[in-house]
Amino acid sequence: MRLTVLGCAGSFPGPESACSAYLVEAEGFRLLIDFGSGSLTALQRYAAIDAIDAILITHLHCDHMLDACTYVVVRRYSPDGPLPPLPVYAPMGAAERIAAAYSSEAEPVDDVYTFYGLQPGTFPIGPLTVTVDRVNHPIETYGVRVEHNGHVLAYSSDTAPCEPLLRLAQGADVFLCEASYLDGRQNPPDLHLTGGEAGQAATKADVGRLLLTHLVPAWASEASTVEAACAAYAGPVEVVRPGSRYDL
Q1: Cys-Cys link to 169, which of 3, 119, 154, 230 (CB 3.0-4.6 A)?
Q2: What is the pLDDT along the chain (248 residues), one digit of tens a residue?
Q3: Going from the N-terminus, what domains does the chain have, and what CATH number goes with each?
Q4: Diameter of the chain measured on Cα atoms
């Protein structure tokens, strides 16, 4: 597998990055995990704009799905004719949410996307084996585990500490984990992780490498976030950047 970070800013686009979007490739298959605001720009740097084979949206906050609305134009109005409907794995209500954001008339988008409702469990997407489970966030949100040829990528999506996150990340080669808040503050409960909490999860799940994402530059110090993560996890820690690539 190859992971390419298209966007990694948390909650809203940052000065240097679009919001969450991660391209996972294996055997020529391209799965886009999340499609946050601004990430369609970055997608075009690393793949043909019409070359995505499937999309998985972890939850329906704008910073994880809004560019799926913009992408309707790409697939519906291509000069070569409409492209085939694209599989989208997402929480229930995604079709209505995307349609409402795309058009004030809530024009259906079933000519562009074929929607599959997420629920906890394991299923194939192309050559990938994907497991999702509900994590601790105010709306229906899924953490993700992706397996291929014995290698494992885990992705927290947005979550506060919870047991399903540890199960999804257990033994992963790479753990892509959000770290939105600073340790030592009275942060809102049941919403996001701190760097220290991300490090604790990585240690408990015995992962091989911790990649921090979804940092919010306007709210938190990157250096302090990394310091807290490293204090809780002894393995390699890195803050991802747009364009970062990781081979598993």
Answers
A1: 154
A2: 999 999 999 888 888 899 999 999 999 999 999 999 999 999 999 999 999 999 999 999 999 999 999 999 999 999 999 999 999 999 999 999 999 999 888 889 999 999 999 999 999 999 999 999 999 999 999 999 999 999 999 999 999 999 999 999 999 999 999 999 999 999 999 999 999 999 999 999 999 999 999 999 888 889 999 999 999 999 999 999 999 999 99
A3: 2-243 (3.60.15.10)
A4: 55
